[in-house]
Amino acid sequence: MTRDYKDTVFLPKTDFPMRAGLPQKEPEMLERWERMEIWKKLRETSKGREKFILHDGPPYANGDIHMGHVLNKVLKDVINRSRQMMGYDANYVPGWDCHGLPIEWKIEEKYRKAGRNKDEVPVNEFRRECREFADHWIDVQREGFKRLGVFGDWERPYLTMDYKSEAVTVAELLKFLMDGSLYKGSKAVMWSVVEKTSLAEAEIEYHDHTSTTIWVRFPVIRTEDPALEGASVVIWTTTPWTIPGNRALAYGEAIDYGVYQVEAVAEGSLAKVGEKLALADALAESVREAAGIESWTKVAQVTKPAGTVCRHPLSDLGYTYEDRLLPADYVTTDQGTGFVHIAPGHGAEDFELGVENGVEVPDTVAEDGLYYPHVPHFAGTHVFKVDGPMIETLTGHGGLLAHGRITHSYPHSWRSKAPLIFRNAPQWFISMEKTGIREKALKAISETAFYPKSGQRRLNGMIENRPDWLLSRQRVWGVPITVFVDKRTGEPLRDEKVNERILEAIQAEGCDAWFGNDAAFFLGDDYSAADYEKASDILDVWFDSGTTHAFCLEMRDDLKWPADLYLEGTDQHRGWFHSSLLESCGTRGRAPYDAVLTHGFILDEKAEKMSKSSGNALGPKDVFGQYGADILRLWVAAADYTEDLRFGPGILKATADSYRRLRNTLRFLLGNLHDFDESERLAPAEMPELDRYLLHRLAVMDRTVREALAVYDFHDVFVALHNFCAIELSSFYFDIRKDVLYCDRPDSIRRRATRTVLDRLYHCLVTWFAPILAFTAEEAWQSRYPDENDSVHLKLFPEVPAEWLDDALAEKWNRIFEIRRVVTGALEVERREKRIGASLQASPVVYLSADDAAKLEDLNMAGLFITSGAAVSTDPAPADAFRLEDVDGVAVSPRRATGAKCGRCWMVLEEVPEEGALCNRCSDAVAVHDAAAA
User: Fold this and answer.
1) 439 is in an annotated binding site
2) Per DSSP, what are the bridge partners of residue 97?
3) Is 906 left (phi over 0), alpha (psi -120 to 50) or beta?
């Protein structure tokens, strides 16, 4: 009876399954990490190391985590884990942004549904509800981030609404007060009439909006240019509601203007035969068509527009203002008439031009979008409902020349989605020039590393041209502007003793102290409360988050200032990166970070924006239940985060396929390292060439991984590791060495060398994968080194000896790799044509040059090609030999192996006496096995 040799073959043994079961295993692993207090162990083992600090940009505490959170937090976690394993102390303190309009808006919605008026609720009661709302979502988001496998000091995060944080934020504000850069001014700012507050640029979105356009006559009443006498200057605007705020007109000094006399008009036209209209020559034809003018004649060229004064078109309704023509470099001939009407209270450029020329800046629109009672004719009308009445009124008083509609990009509130207006209102600002903040910030940008580098140009351009920092918001849920204003002079009070009392109260009670105490409490005996106005506005939340470096990095001994890295989405060039830079440069003279990394946004698989209404918003919870968090982590690492990232079911499936290939690599290693003993280990000098070549490749990979991680290039890390596992290991080294692992006797040099290399591969791959595949790497580590109190995440990347690098050997084996590809191709043809079954049925002849033949000398070619035999010939190759076009000088004649099939290794060899008997190698291995078992 023929013996079954299965028990003598060293088949892989591992409890590391092919099917991952991540949705079930990951929560169990999270519980184990909690039990072993892994974060505490990490901090203990890192003491004394150089710190690497990635300062967390605080997410907003108002909802479940979404895919944008996943991208952001996983990137941060991969960076922190990799730096930790590269020998740093990478302490990560997560934070939350807790103040601001979105939370306040939610509480107001609750009041509205209950029929309550927010303004009738005591301020601190309202603030308490906002705080409770934020607290709830902080807990929800914290659990979501932990489910992703993100390591951090979750028990001690920083919160912008903590009393100590609020006190530091106020202290930072008071620094600007004391150095004179904080001031109160009346400017036209972007305003939400829905939310009744000013908005920062970072809170604004641009969407298509259809506006009413009007062409309006402003009759000339005085001029030094004869050409303009008896004419009307024509303006064009997309904001009819700003006409009540008009106080001047603007023209471009480089623009050619003409006066056109109307000769004939179409039916229904508002133009009048005989009237003279002044406008830019370049836009004359478009105006003529819009106004329904059938013919006109240019009667004069305007040469001296300066000094010209016009009458407001509604002067007989009380708008008795004279409009001067003022030169402005922003006037163009892109569209309109070449003249621009100036409403200083409703536009940034209008405001600046008006102030420069002594033009009145009127208050015409209240915070709710209604015209003030003093506004003639339109008092009490909402600005977004005035287009019809404005057209009717202008027409009735002879001011309207034409009207139309235009769809254009227009600013909207990111929260309410409602269109915004420019509105003049008293606001608090930080000057960009008073203490040189702009220059300091530009210098800091030049000294900061940016990933990608384009972020540097973007932020630089924003700082170069930005106006003074608008700080105030007309809301209550936030850090108050803790300033007193002298009612007589309008100047803010600058007194360190008052500041100390303010800070002491906020440290004890939080910012509620500002709202809950009267002015006298803070002013003390040195000042009369009757002489001062207590500021009622709150700070822009970007100032809150811009000071996180002060109350997080500087207040904790386990962190450092400045941070090594800030990381957020590209929108934070105008948000957190921006405000942190300005705040820090204003108070410390430099950026609070040494490097800035930005990532793109999440799109669906069709490159469209994700939204619930579109039905394409796949959330993290959906993925946790089906695939597990490691698939999300792998997707983040595999993608190019510098661009917008696509995400969806198809991409998830492809990522899961890649994951399986990586997992199977780990499984092969674990299975074939079963019972590996140190006594088996071989020095590289004792190994066959193939194994030394793998050590060389491992050394190259070590350098590749470390260099890519150092510059946050995780996509390159993924590609390198994936290709290394799928091509160089699975399809080459593992494929070749399976026979040695399974069939060689345990003490053979080849098997010991292979197992030594596998051990080195295991330690490198498991630790290299650990920052990305946090759960899978831990599972693979515990599978080999089970210890309830140990973890792969407590390890460092293994030190790979530089002596393993052997470029000459690599060059040789790169050529052998090509030769092998031709042999494999020839055998594929034989299998396809059913001339052989397995490759072990073949014994090919390989035709090579003498140089290539020498490369294969002393190598086990049968093992290299996974055949039963092989021969090399330097003779000319037969015409029908197999070749590959991209590999020169190699041809293969496949031949069937002759002899009998070994009953243990299945090689077909002449030395096997009969089918099922053993070859010499297997006979020796079985004898050793039987002796050991006896």
Assistant:
1) no
2) 60
3) left
pLDDT, tens digit (0-9, with 9 covering 90-100), for 829-875: 999 999 999 999 999 999 999 999 999 998 999 999 999 999 999 99
Those residues whose C-beta lies under 8 Å from the C-beta of residue 480, and which sit 6 or more positions away, are 170, 511, 514, 515, 535, 536, 537, 538, 539
Q: Nearest CA to 369 among 204, 471, 242?
A: 242
Distance (Å, rounded) from C-alpha 512 to C-alpha 507? 10
* 552 annotated as belonging to a binding site for a ligand: no
Q: Is 380 exposed, middle or buried (0-12, 13-18, 19+ CB in 10 A)?
A: exposed
Q: Is 919 annotated as belonging to a binding site?
A: yes
**Among candidates 76, 130, 85, 378, which has minimal Cα distance to 245?**
378
One-letter amino acid identity for 890?
V
The three-point CA angle 137-139-144 to 5° equals 90
Taking phi over 0 as left and psi of -120 to 50 as alpha, with beta for the rest, 602 belongs to beta
Which is it for strands 908-909 and 900-901: parallel, antiparallel or unpaired?
antiparallel
Query: Quick one: tokens of 812?
Result: 């040789």
Q: Is 905 annotated as a binding residue?
A: yes
How far, in Å, CA of 863 to CA of 843, rounded?
11
> Do the beta carbons of residue 59 and residue 97 sit within 8 Å?
yes
Order of strands across the sheet that contains 54-55: 54-55, 565-569, 595-599, 449-451
How far apart, in whole angstroms, are the C-alpha atoms of residue 766 and residue 781? 7
Q: Give 774-831 pLDDT, tens digit per residue.
A: 999 999 999 999 999 999 999 999 999 999 999 999 999 999 999 999 999 999 999 9
What is the β-pairing status of strands 400-413 and 204-222? antiparallel
What is the set of domains in the chain, with CATH numbers?
9-17+660-805 (1.10.730.20), 205-417 (3.90.740.10), 832-933 (3.30.2320)
Cα-Cα-Cα-Cα dihedral of 127, 131, 137, 141, to 10°? Answer: 130
Instruction: Give the pair of three-digit tokens for residue 157.
Output: 């995060």
- Residues 842, 826 contacting (CB under 8 angstroms): no
Query: Distances from the Cα of 350 to the Cαs of 246, 257, 863, in angstroms?
Result: 10, 21, 82
Query: pLDDT for 512-538, tens place per residue?
Result: 999 999 999 999 999 999 999 999 999
Residue 922 marked ligand-binding: yes
Distance (Å, whole) CA 143 – CA 614: 27
Tokens found for residue 337: 């008439």
Contact present, 737 and 754 (Cβ < 8 Å): yes
- Does 613 score more than 70 pLDDT? no
- Specify whether the backbone of 63 is left (phi greater than 0), alpha (psi in -120 to 50) or beta: left
Q: Where are the beta strands (DSSP E) in 725-867?
A: 845-847
Full DSSP string of 686-752: GS-HHHHHHHHHHHHHHHHHHHHHHTT-HHHHHHHHHHIIIIIIIIIIHHHHHHHHHHS-TT-HHHH
3-state secondary structure 574-640: CCHHHHHHHHHHHHHCCCCECEEEEECCEECCCCCECCCCCCCCCCHHHHHHHCCHHHHHHHHHHCC
Q: How far apart are CA 874 and CA 496, in angstroms?
A: 93
Q: Hey, what's the torsion of the CAs at 18, 22, 28, 29, to 10 degrees? A: 80
Which amino acid is residue 420, in one-letter code? L
The 10 Å Cβ neighbour count of residue 929 is: 17
* Dihedral over Cα of 778, 782, 788, 790: its sign: negative
DSSP reduced 3-state for 469: strand
For the whole model, what pTM was predicted?
0.85
* CA distance linking residue 122 with residue 25, whole number of Å: 49
Q: Answer for the pair 339, 258: CB distance below 8 angstroms, yes or no.
A: no
Residue 488 CB-half CA count within 13 A: 4
- Annotated ligand binding at 118? The verdict is no
The CA distance from 465 to 521, in Å, is 41
In the structure encoding, which two tokens stand for residue 764, read together? 């490198």
> Which DSSP helix (H) or strand (E) runs through 116?
none
